[in-house]
Amino acid sequence: MNYIEPHAHMVSRVTDDYLKLKLAGCQAVCEPAFWAGFDRSSPAGFHDYFSQLTEHEPKRAAKFGLPHFCWLCINPKESEDLKLAEEVLALIPKFLNAPNVLGIGEIGLNKNSRNEIKVLERHVDLAARHQQLILVHTPHLEDKLKGTRLILETLKNDKRIRPERVIIDHVEEHTIELVLDSGMWAGMTLYPESKCTPARAIDMVERYGSERLWMNSACDWGISDPLAVPKTALEMTKRGHTIENIDRLVFQNPARFLSQSSKFKLP
Ligand SMILES: [Zn+2]
Question: What is the pTM of this model?
Answer without folding.
Answer: 0.97
